[in-house]
Design a protein that fits this description.
alpha/beta; Rossmann fold; six-stranded mixed β-sheet; two-stranded parallel ribbon; 7 helices; globular; binds S-adenosylmethionine
């Protein structure tokens, strides 16, 4: 049985997200990806950055099965660890001591608008506990700026998210920055991405 899931957006955004990662990833060490979804990003990034250890995770069992299936499909099972079950709100995150000591970056793509705001707070709090000084937390997704949508398509997307779940929605960049600051991060970069998305880089201070 093929457990692979196909999230169409990953085909479109993986190269440009990979280009941002190439500027901010270390040469070696472990990267923890939260909300890895289908796993298509994870295997691409493991292939593109072979000297790092890409650790995927997701709370949804079918997503973890898909990630494992993609790891097999790419022939990465001896190189890349199996996904772990992390719900950002369930703490502590179940990381091994080795992963904690080798951890250099936390990456979270397209999660904070598809989960309650409490997840954004939990993401920064636990990442802040895990990352050492100068290490980075990297987010990707759509954001509002000064409370305003940056495009008509983001505004429509926000409405459709809220119809699905009233606790979801596109977050305001300034609110995200405040949560980051409260947890010891400073903003390193805001990078405009295709299709009205942003990459946000936060440095642990
Ligand atoms: C839109 S998908 C994005 C998946 C992938 N990062 C991508 O860009 O294709 C959102 C993901 O967030 C995960 N997610 C939702 N709530 C979460 C939580 N509380 N903790 C961690 N992941 C969560 C879902 O299981 C899902 O895989």
């Amino acid at each position: 049985m093929d457990n692979r899931l196909f999230f169409t957006a990953t085909q479109k955004n993986r190269d440009c997200i990979g280009d941002v990662l190439s500027r901010f990833l270390p040469k070696r060490g472990s990267i923890l990806e939260l909300a890895s979804g289908s796993g298509e990003h994870g295997v691409e990034f493991q292939k593109r950055f072979p000297s790092i250890n890409w650790q995927t995770s997701d709370p949804e069992p079918s997503h973890r099965k898909s990630i494992s299936a993609w790891i097999d499909k790419y022939g990465l099972s001896t190189k890349m660890p199996q996904p772990i079950n992390i719900d950002v709100e369930v703490k502590p995150w179940p990381l091994t001591p080795t992963l904690i000591s080798e951890l250099k970056r936390v990456v979270c793509i397209n999660m904070i608008h598809i989960s309650p705001w409490t997840c954004t707070k939990a993401l920064f709090k636990e990442s802040g506990n895990l990352l050492k000084k100068e290490q980075l937390l990297m987010l990707y997704g759509p954001f509002k700026r000064n409370g305003l949508h940056t495009s008509e398509s983001n505004s429509l997307f926000d409405e459709s998210l809220k119809r699905q779940n009233s606790t979801w929605g596109i977050r305001n960049l300034e609110d995200v920055n405040q949560v980051a600051m409260k947890n010891g991060f400073t903003q390193e970069a805001v990078i405009q991405m295709p299709a009205n998305n942003l990459s946000l880089i936060f440095r642990m201070s």
